[in-house]
Design brief:
D-tyrosyl-trna(Tyr) Deacylase, Chain: A; five-stranded mixed β-sheet; 16% strand; Beta-lactamase; single chain
């Protein structure tokens, strides 16, 4: 305690000598109340209340650094960390060491999408045919041309959501656009066209386990229920008979079922194919705006959404709806926005690739930029409350005080965002751990609990200047 007291005194003297505190007396006439009337100074000029941040920082920075160092010494594996307050670095470790970032990579995808596609961009699902309906009857096949919308969901599939509050787009609303267009009967079949993007369903470098665990859907520009089987005939019923299927075919089959159930007779079957070049629009369905799409992606760490957004970035910027084109365009966008991409290896848009790499410095820069968009900032999961942190940080010091993007893979646990401490400080941070620590996500959660101790002592608002009398 004696050493800390000396350090505080030293800071006070340094501030006075350095000219950061006004040394000359202040007369009562120089102090005014809220109505502009002169009043007496309630706080002496050289009071500690006039520079609370310096007092907290002089002791708090050292205490927090020591606490994090002690914590990292017990973590198994490789870790990078940075903690800042208002742009001032409090602690850093392995700052420029590229590590696998897992789903914090989605922050890069989100910022590139806002730049390349725009916040109001939408995904359009089009219904086209070589013949226009007459008296409500469409004579021939109806083609459904996918626009990359990843959020279309039936009631049956919604039951499997881990978070009951997860945002989705109602597949019935898409079907109703045909009813609104006056279509009452289709004499042909439903043909799904997903030619907007390439036909690569799984990125080749991904572990094959992703194809059976529901981690990500078979990628397609035309998709419903994350490309899962089990809902095409009974879309509103829950089922355990789920596995990755043929995304565009499942879409066509599900649409046929829903149309028939909603009074639009479809005589033919469901299949896939490319719409004829001379086909004309019958109806269309617009997704929610891009900002809402990206918000869902961030809150729920939606891998399928991230990958389809990346392909759309590639299509718009490079003319190719491919992952590789999307990566090139995203990196160009991030560079244009001023990010230092040193050490970045971006092999997908979701962070699922175990060979992705990112530094903590870039991770923090990305989440800081995301936080400047009100919608995306609000989408960051809250510890113990929402999204991918809903079941984490429960009944801990971090509950309700951490807003961060998560990143979780086998051997990877990352967290980057903001911590609102009980003492009234807001810390920004990035934490990436690669290794086999048995605490898994607890490694990152335990780190944020350390942040809650900053800075010990009175709340920052209690140290501020007193109001005038």
């Amino acid at each position: 305690m004696f050493v800390k007291s000396l350090s505080v005194v030293a800071v006070l003297l340094a501030l006075v000598v350095g000219g950061l505190v006004i040394a000359a007396p202040v007369s009562d006439a120089e102090i005014t109340d809220r109505q502009g009337h002169p009043g007496p100074a309630a706080t002496p000029v050289l009071s500690a209340r006039r520079f609370p941040g310096s007092i907290q920082g002089s002791v708090g920075d050292a205490d927090l650094s020591a606490s994090i160092d002690q914590y990292l010494n017990k973590v198994v594996g490789s870790t990078c960390v940075i903690v800042e307050q208002d742009g001032r670095v409090i602690f850093e470790h392995g700052l420029k060491d590229p590590l696998a970032p897992a789903s914090t990579m989605k922050l890069a995808t989100a910022l590139a999408a806002l730049d390349v596609l725009g916040p109001d961009a939408t995904f359009t699902t089009r219904f086209v045919s070589t013949k226009q309906p007459k008296n409500g009857v469409l004579d021939g096949d109806l083609y459904v041309v996918g626009g990359g919308d990843a959020l279309l969901t039936t009631a049956g599939y919604k039951t499997v959501f881990d978070d009951p509050d997860q945002f989705f787009e109602d597949f019935n609303a898409l079907a109703d656009t045909l009813k609104d267009a006056g279509v009452k009967e289709i004499t042909g079949g439903i043909i799904g066209d997903d030619s907007r993007y390439d036909a690569v369903r799984w990125i080749p470098s991904w572990p094959t386990r992703y194809q059976i665990g529901g981690t990500v859907a078979p990628l397609s520009a035309l998709i419903v229920n994350d490309g899962n089987t089990g809902y095409a005939d009974t879309p509103n019923d829950a089922t355990t008979n789920r596995k990755a299927g043929d995304s565009p075919l499942l879409f066509a089959q599900t649409l046929r079922t829903v149309l028939n159930s909603r009074g639009i007779k479809v005589s033919g079957g469901a299949s896939t194919g490319r719409a004829p070049s001379d086909a004309k629009d019958v109806a269309s369905f617009e997704s929610v705006p891009m900002t809402k799409v990206l918000s869902e992606m961030i809150t729920n760490s939606d891998n399928t959404t991230a990958e389809l957004v990346l392909k759309e970035i590639g299509l718009q910027a490079k003319g190719q709806g491919t992952t590789s084109a999307g990566i090139d365009a995203a990196k160009e966008s991030l560079t244009r926005q001023g990010f230092d991409l040193s050490g970045l290896i971006m092999l997908d848009g979701s962070g699922l690739d175990t060979n992705d790499r990112m530094t903590c410095a870039l991770d923090l820069a990305l989440v800081t930029a995301v936080s400047k968009n009100a919608d995306l900032s609000a989408a960051l999961p809250v510890g113990g409350r929402t999204g991918t942190l809903r079941k984490r940080m429960a009944s801990t010091a971090s509950t309700g005080r951490v807003r961060a993007k998560t990143g979780t893979l086998n051997g990877v646990n990352a967290l980057t965002g903001f911590a609102d401490t009980p003492q009234g400080n807001t810390l920004s941070f990035a934490f990436i751990h690669n290794g086999t620590d048995i605490r898994t996500t607890g490694v990152a959660d335990g780190f944020t609990d350390r942040l809650m101790t900053y800075a010990k002592g009175p709340r920052i608002n209690l140290l501020g200047p007193l109001p005038t009398k």
